Amino acid sequence: MLATLGFLTIVVLLALIMTKKASPIVALIAVPVITAVIGGFASELNTFIIDGIKAIAPTGTMFIFAILFFGILTDAGTFDPIISKILKIVGNDPVKITIGTAILAMIVHLDGSGAVTFLVTIPAMLPLYDALKMKRTTLATVTALGAGTMNMLPWGGPTVRAASALEISVSELFNPMLVPFAAGIITVLVISYFLGKQEKKRLGDINLDNVKTEVVVDEEVEALKRPKLFLFNIALIIVCVVVMIKEILSPTAIFMLAFALSLIVNYPNPDTQRARVDAHAKSAFMMASLLFAAGSFTGILKGAGMLDAMAVATVKIIPQSLGRFIPIIVGVFSMPTSLLFDPDSFYFGILPVLAEASSNFGVSALSVARASIIGQMTTGFPISPLTGATFLLIGLTDVDLGDHQKKTIPFAFLITIVMLIVSLVIGVISI
Q1: 208 φ, ψ (degrees, to nearest 5)
Q2: How far is it, in rounded angstroms, from Cα 363 to Cα 323?
Q3: CB 129 within 8 A of CB 138
Q4: Chain centroid to CA 44
Q5: pLDDT tens, N- to C-terminus, the chain (431 residues)
Q6: Contact of 184 with 331, CB cutoff 8 Å
Q7: What is the rounded distance in angstroms from the CA atom of residue 116 to the CA atom of residue 118?
Q8: Is the dihedral of CA 125, 277, 279, 228 positive or negative?
Q9: Domain spans of the chain?
Q10: C-alpha span between 275 and 69 (Å, rounded)
Q11: Which long-range contacts (CB under 8 A, 24 or more apart) does 103-107 make?
């Protein structure tokens, strides 16, 4: 009975989200409440929901303040000198241009927003690609690979969702993945070099001496820039990352303190502070509310025993010989599943069942979660038709979705496999 109710909850949730009959936040709240009532747990609903929200609270709070922190630094123009330096270095060499594109996309994606990454990277690099007659599909691919791999960051959507769904800390999930993550970044740069060499061979001798790019200046945006605080802001980012990796403070505490400090130093005027918070509050609130709704969802499924029952049922249909390989299976298919499931459906609906099932085979649920974040809506998000950012990317580059997917998917899959192999070799994903 419980397993049936659990699977019914998942199926209805996926159906509502994927057919857009309900928003993810509404589906996450309403569906498990209804099935729990059907299962006779009406009197215990309050306890289940509160327990789930308590478990998710640190992650949700971290995400709110991470968004605000990086939003403040972007407003202050922290990344502008880096962008300008990259554009100056790449010159007229297609190899340098593709590598520079990847680096730029990765730096801009520190805030975890695909839309922002594409809105900054594409307009900055497109004039160079057009002037040299480099393929726009190359620009789209390199940008997608850089942003996709960086989406694994602890404050990135997939990692936050995975940690929330399994009620574990972001540090516990991500920190051991630093080496595979670095391998993924290196692979992106190698692929960018390879694509740049292809472009250079195709184009032959080229000259960019007479190329000029038009820069549109927004006076309101410029007024917010704080170039004199560049070193302070960069140092603050570095300190945050070091403290997080060394686990001196929790990610929640780190980003709360970093946000407050960055706001006070960059914008000491209280009215300006309120305006900057307001400017980024919408994106922070939307994701945080989704995470708390997911906490309610997970709390009900766990509290009612549906999750355990689904795991037992799943274990019965998985051959014993394959059970221990669940993390590998998840890792291999993590990128392709980005084409089938949006992140909310996968991380809140499917991952908990897979993780619980793997535990029954003696495999750590953490391994399954780590296997999922190497591809599911990380390397996979910029090619998925389920994300708006993908259409923003192909719209800015004026590239056909099919052409973009055809060129990018093999490279995105390669990056995922490299990270999976490294993870298995160093033991952070175990079977």
Answers
A1: -115, 15
A2: 8
A3: yes
A4: 34
A5: 788 888 888 888 878 876 878 887 888 899 999 999 998 999 899 999 998 888 878 878 887 888 888 889 888 988 788 878 887 888 788 999 999 999 999 988 887 777 778 878 887 888 788 888 899 999 999 999 999 999 999 888 899 899 988 888 888 999 999 999 999 999 999 999 999 999 999 887 655 455 554 555 567 778 889 999 999 999 998 898 888 878 788 888 998 999 999 999 999 999 999 999 998 888 788 778 877 887 888 889 888 888 778 777 766 777 777 878 989 999 999 998 887 777 887 888 889 888 888 888 888 999 999 999 999 999 998 988 767 688 778 888 888 888 898 999 999 999 999 999 999 999 999 87
A6: no
A7: 5
A8: negative
A9: 58-287+319-426
A10: 14
A11: 103/146, 103/189, 104/146, 105/142, 105/143, 105/145, 105/146, 105/147, 105/150, 106/146, 106/147, 106/149, 106/150, 106/185, 106/188, 107/79, 107/82, 107/83
Residues 6+ apart with CB under 8 A from 212: none
Tokens of 285: 């609130």
Residue where the block lists tokens 């032959």:
204
Map tokens 């403040």 to a residue: 72
| Type of residue found at 333 | F
Output the CA–CA distances (angstroms, integers) from residue 65 to 149, 222, 269, 312, 347, in the order listed. Answer: 22, 24, 19, 38, 22
* Cβ atoms of residues 390 and 384 within 8 Å: yes
CA distances from 33 to 27, 39, 221, 355 (A): 10, 10, 45, 22
